[in-house]
Amino acid sequence: MTETFEPVGEHDWRLAASATGLLAEFNAAGLLSAADVHVATRVAALGEEEDERVRLAVALAVRAVRRGSVGLDLAAVPAIAPELAWPEAEAWAAAVAASPLVAAGAVRWELGLLYLDRYHRLETQVHADLEARLAQAAPGIDEARLDAALARVRGGRFSPEQEAAVAAAVRRRTTILTGGPGTGKTTTVARLLALLADQATGSTQRREGRLSIALAAPTGKAATRLQEAVAAEVAEVGETWPEVAALVGRLQGQTLHRLLGWRPDNATRFRHDRGNRLKYDVVVVDESSMVELTMMGRLLEALRPESVLVLLGDPQQLTSVGAGAVLGDLVAGYDGRPDSPVAALTRNFRSTDDILALSVALRAGDADTVVEVLRTPSDEVSWVDTSEEAEVEAALRPDSLRAARAVWAAAVAEQPALAIEELDRYRLLCAHREGPYGVRRWNQRVERWLAEEVDVDVHGPSYVGRPLLVTSNDYALDVYNGETGVVVQQGDRRRAFVAGSGRLKEFAPGRLDAVETMHAMTIHKSQGSQVERVTVLLPEADSRLLTRELFYTAVTRAQQHVRVVGSEAAVRAAVATRALRATGLQQRLRETGSAP
Ligand SMILES: Nc1ncnc2c1ncn2[C@@H]1O[C@H](COP(=O)(O)OP(=O)(O)OP(=O)(O)O)[C@@H](O)[C@H]1O
């Protein structure tokens, strides 16, 4: 796996002209970017640190954050480029520990990790807030009332495992509900809310007996799914418990950004914080694996201590784009602690057997079984074992074109709802954005194939049938990152329709500027969504993006069929490579758990 770049000549923009010594060496070797070098040089100058080994460590810590870690694992870092002349390990750690930068608090040295101060503050805050939540007295529960309510929510989509998780969650202020895809995490939320609301009606602790509940997720799409799942389950429970809808209320899903109060003047601070807490009694966050450390920190500080927090997610999925691996750290860090707030669901209700077998083998890191499942003929899993461009193209064309045609046909027929429905029938997922295996190339290819087959001019941003992916939150327009849409003919005009919570939002296509074409999509962006048929295009085995978490996330998007296109070497490389991030949260949670 390559983690370095090769500078093209001495004027390469990635080289810092002013760098000297170790910084220059590691920059020229392609491990550090010019920005890493500049930040380290500036921090070192301010803190009067002369030791070039410490400067190197600071630059590597900047790089580590850029790549998703919270701190730099000093002992592990030489393994990423063993050919370089690394400082001697013990002396290096001693120099860092004794640095005036550490003494001044510009960087922190703890748990074998070198932290930039901001990330250290965030991680220790998240840890402290979580521990404070766990240390509170449990909420008072009316057990007889709980038993009666449990009896009323039984039946329908509610397994004994889900019931046990819900019954435990009612007794806590913090619950982390984990499980693989399709294990019914989202489905479980409605019944948990019903039980909490029911307890509240009998309680004098909460205002007017009525709970205020927030449903949130990192993306708009995931928030919509949560809202819809809760509404569907509330309706189901309502058949045996007619008052339940009134108890829970009509709930809207929202993005975490919106929940916390997005501010136009500040990208990392929100209206709600420790001085202006969220008013909700219960906050549910779906797809928590996508929540980065910064956002988790902001959420925890904004919650009232006595409120109930429910985090749902699959810790095996790709971690957040930003730094941190919070959900994975929480699950591992609480493991074995008697006060653990983690409840795990294991039974899969969605995937077909072979997709399930593939995802189980992936979770276990069992490459031989992954290859065997892929090779075994099945209606649900198939494999085109190749990385030859012509073969890749031949493999991708039929399904991608069929899907694009179906969306286009609905769009031409002025049927926006049908066009949006067609979007979720098939998806081509790529690891990369650029290059031969990237989204950009395959988007263009599919457009070309479509233009060869039907009467459409795919040039320009608003051709009829163009599938859209919203790439950032736009509060003014009410469209959110991750939402999908299509450009549709409407009489003599073209309109863009975006699928929102239970309704279609209509725009003049030119008004949506943060959108991409979605004939192909990155696996990162596909997190939190489900599609009937998925094709996963794997890059070459040495791609630095190719990891087990990435492959697992792609495979588990499929409801009915997943097809993998890529070489056996790429499949094996994906299984063998973990997207490990250096963070200290897990260890902090373990240590508090074992403290006397
Ligand atoms: N106890 C159950 N019995 C039958 N079907 C169930 C049960 N629980 C959930 N389901 C169904 O299984 C499917 C997956 O459920 P859900 O979306 O809640 O899973 P999830 O764990 O949130 O999945 P993901 O993380 O992939 O979004 C849904 O179609 C849901 O209706």
Structure description:
With 596 residues, the chain is an alpha/beta fold. It folds into 3 domains: 21-116, RecBCD complex, subunit RecD, N-terminal domain (Arc Repressor Mutant, subunit A); 141-350, Rossmann fold (3-Layer(aba) Sandwich), CATH 3.40.50.300; 353-576, P-loop containing nucleotide triphosphate hydrolases (Rossmann fold), CATH 3.40.50.300. The protein is built from 23 helices and 19 strands. The two termini are 43 Å apart. Adenosine-5'-triphosphate (ATP) binds next to helix 9.
By CATH reckoning, the class of the largest domain would read Alpha Beta
- Largest beta-sheet details: 6 strands, parallel
Note the total helix count: 23
CA gyration radius, whole angstroms: 25 Å
Average pLDDT rating: 91
Strand order of the largest sheet: 6-5-7-8-4-9
What ligands can be seen in this structure?
adenosine-5'-triphosphate
CATH architecture of the largest domain: 3-Layer(aba) Sandwich
* C-alpha end-to-end distance: 43 Å
- Unreliable stretches covering 5 or more consecutive residues: none
**Helical coverage, percent range:** 40-55%
Q: Which structural class should the secondary elements be placed in?
A: alpha/beta
Task: Quote the beta fraction.
Answer: 15-25%
CATH superfamily of the largest domain: P-loop containing nucleotide triphosphate hydrolases
Determine the CATH topology of the largest domain. Rossmann fold
Number of domains: 3
Using DSSP, what is the number of strands? 19
- What is the overall shape? globular
EC number: 5.6.2.3
Family: Belongs to the RecD family.
Protein name: RecBCD enzyme subunit RecD
GO molecular function: 5'-3' DNA helicase activity; ATP binding; ATP hydrolysis activity; DNA binding; exodeoxyribonuclease V activity; single-stranded DNA helicase activity
